[in-house]
Amino acid sequence: MNEPLLERIERVRQAQRGKYYLNDTVVSMAHGSGGKSSQALIEGLVVPALHNPELARLEDCARLQAGGQRLVVTTDSYVIDPIFFPGGDIGSLAVHGTLNDLATSGAEPLGLTLAMILEEGFPLDSLRRILESAGEACRRAGVSIVTGDTKVVGRGKCDQIFLTTTGVGWIRVSHQLSMDSVQPGDRILISGPVGDHGVAIMGARGDMGLELDVLSDSAPVSSMARRLLEEIASVRCLKDPTRGGVATALNEIAQKSGCAIAVEEGQVPVRAEVRGACELLGLDPLYVANEGRLLAVVPEAFAQQALEILQADEAGREARIFATALAEPVGTVYLRTSLGGTRVLDMLAGAPLPRIC
Amino acid sequence: MNEPLLERIERVRQAQRGKYYLNDTVVSMAHGSGGKSSQALIEGLVVPALHNPELARLEDCARLQAGGQRLVVTTDSYVIDPIFFPGGDIGSLAVHGTLNDLATSGAEPLGLTLAMILEEGFPLDSLRRILESAGEACRRAGVSIVTGDTKVVGRGKCDQIFLTTTGVGWIRVSHQLSMDSVQPGDRILISGPVGDHGVAIMGARGDMGLELDVLSDSAPVSSMARRLLEEIASVRCLKDPTRGGVATALNEIAQKSGCAIAVEEGQVPVRAEVRGACELLGLDPLYVANEGRLLAVVPEAFAQQALEILQADEAGREARIFATALAEPVGTVYLRTSLGGTRVLDMLAGAPLPRIC
């Protein structure tokens, strides 16, 4: 039954590509959202233009081989606005983001690189604060920024500071982590409340015209990921649900695995302030970015053990088992609401929260 | 005699730092020039803020260990203006630049990453051209872009497109390549005419108000570097003289090694158009950026062999032995002019050619 599913997914993708080619001639904010438009841009333009089958796997990390060593490399640019926000800044965010991509691929970090694009006139005191914050995030994780680059552009040619961090890691113990491996019956955990980062950023931008007491969750998930992988050999996959939020991450898993995913609305941890802010803005917290949360998919038999591992970590005390993989409807994510109804959770469309990371 | 030299260099650096702290409170274009101000920013702010001794080596590449494998990682952001220019574009430039950093560190590429920051409204046709060019540069070099990232910022928040490429390589045969290892008597080669890239960019910008028939030299130096390292065990160091040009690269070698370097003006290969354009603009071609030239330092006994190796490569047919390392004056680079005089070639100061890469 596996082939027809994949063919169907491919047809949907082809259709999306066609649509994308018909509608878009220039870059839009949605292309950077991490959702549907981002996927269309990558599948419809980036991968064909580069003629690159390896990139077509579209995962956050790539695997490399050097002699007998299995390496992992991941890269991300950070263009967040504002650059200082409750719970972090662009420097610590970049380090945490890169560490989390390595951790969710089962890799231990060997080193990070940091490339900076600075706007002429950017205060050196702000640069120092950002770098000290990045350095502190590295020290806590026991990793170093090993090389970097600095470019400067004129006033008005970038917005203060953009960072690009790349992480190189190695896989010391092999895990068959892969979104493809998720099977019906598997349970899905989240390490803490969803949507904190996105709401903290909106609050810092003054988008809501009110003071919020929400901090970004920006933090490494490395220790939780490491313990899960050490103690549960059959972890299917790990993800950090950043741009596009938990719903978009679950859609990627559903598309890659061909499973359906049912989310129990009552089991999704959401802070009251985050829920309130999202209601005000007409957003669903499941689509709001997180920067320190771990999604884990494990076989049902290991779900309780995984929950205990997450809750034993300071960063995972509010972890929950909140979703289940099912056989059908193929490739679909849906919410079982508290009132007993169901609602499809598609990938993020549009760009409701630009420059969130 | 080695200690006093290093102490003296350290005193000079301390003095530069002091000056930098007194004068600068915001980022200036010169901080991105690759010359003195860039060095002051990195040594005076970036390295102390990150508390990172490994970064303090200030080389373009960092070494990492994974099991028994020696890895090299290098990262660069590209903010060149214009993004399409005679002889290349931002896509091929980024790939060549990263390949050249790996090649000059003696590493073979394992894979590249590509992070894009796009301005809302950027034409997708231009993006496709840039990515096809990057893909073609990769194919020629037998390397792939293995993972990437896409961010979008609003109109006026970046200038069309910025790319950051990171290269991961491995060192299969160990060479003690290091600027520290350069010794008095060593000879220095350049693989071709200097200044082509910078002059081509200025021409494309219309800075000179005249049509120029100069193409950027943007190209990989990998095959020349590989053959030099295969055939000459005692190569001291390789460099690609990009921002700040050949003079700045030689100053780095002089500072790190404690040697003096004498450049024979008559032996510096410069195209007539490049020389003419530089005269018009009051620039010295030795400070103008190259993107496909290889600087090699070898013991005198191997200089002729190295020259033959370079000249046997299509990219190195105009190679020359153009400079010599000497014992004194310590850490200084100077030009022996065709008329028999001498002139000190300091590191690049200021930012005469912003956004050259």
Report the oligomer: homodimer
Q: What integer value in Å does the Rg of chain A equal?
A: 20 Å
Uncertain segments of chain A are 15-22
CATH fold title of the largest domain in chain A: Phosphoribosyl-aminoimidazole Synthetase, Chain A, domain 2
Q: What topology, given as strand order, has the largest sheet of chain A?
A: 9-11-8-12-10-13-14
Number of DSSP helical runs of chain A: 9
- CATH homologous superfamily (4th level) name of the largest domain in chain A: PurM-like C-terminal domain
Number of strands of chain A: 14
Sketch the major β-sheet of chain A.
7 strands, mixed
Q: Look at the structure and give the CATH class of the largest domain in chain A.
A: Alpha Beta
Largest interface, chains and sizes? A-B, 86 and 86 residues
List the secondary-structure elements of chain A in sequence, H or E. HHEEEEHEHEEEHHEHEHEHEEE
Our measurement of the CA-to-CA distance between the termini of chain A, rounded to an integer number of angstroms, reads 39 Å
Tertiary shape of chain A: globular
Mean pLDDT of chain A: 91
The assigned CATH architecture of the largest domain in chain A is Alpha-Beta Complex
Overall structural domain count of chain A: 2
- The helix content of chain A is 25-40%
Structural class of chain A: alpha+beta
Beta-strand content of chain A:
15-25%
Question: What would the keywords be for this entry?
Answer:
9 helices; homodimer; 5-stranded mixed β-sheet; 60s Ribosomal Protein L30, Chain: A; 357 residues; 7-stranded mixed β-sheet; alpha+beta
